[in-house]
Amino acid sequence: MEIKSLNSVIEELKETVDIKQADLDNLKSQLEFTNTKSTQLQAQIQQLQTAHDTQVQKLNTSISNLTEEKEVVQASLQESAARIVELETSLEKIKVLEKEVETRQILLGKARHEAVILNEHLGKALGMLKQQSNSVDNTIDKELISNVLINFLQIPRGDTKKYEALQLLSSLLEWDESKRVASGLSHHQQSGEPRGRESFISLWTDFLERESTKK
What we know:
Blueprint: H1 2-134, H2 142-154, H3 160-172, H4 177-183, H5 196-214
Helix pairs in contact: 1-5, 2-3, 3-5
Coiled coil: 3-83
Pfam family, one: GRAB
Protein name: GRIP domain-containing protein
């Protein structure tokens, strides 16, 4: 009985060992599968990490490029703004110049109009002088003498016009040599010097021509 009981125990132990061995083999298989799966997962993780690093590097490069482009655009905007200010300043100057040109054109038109009127007056005066030169009447207009005398008195001392006005007066009044010497126009009689009405016509014509040229 004892031997049978012992054999029975041995059989049970063998069965238990077989079961444990099967469990151990099963665990080994699971461990191998787990190791294989872990290796695969690590490889996938490494691939994902590499892809992530590559993507991050690309993003960093894109950010750097965008930053540079932003700086270029900002510099271009600043340059454009400065150019706009410069153009606005130039436009204001052009407007001022256009206004000055317009004003000068108006003044030029007025000057031309005045020149036309002056030339008309000069022509009339010269015509009157020619008529007087051909007339035997030796009468001198008092208003003309008064105007020349007033002009003479208003001319500052030392101005050459004062001598010209005095010379015109001497011709208008037909001064003789003694009066010309007394007035300071002459120190002695000069040969070939025009006298009387002829001298007056010449001096008055020259005077009008000089005045018209100044306009």
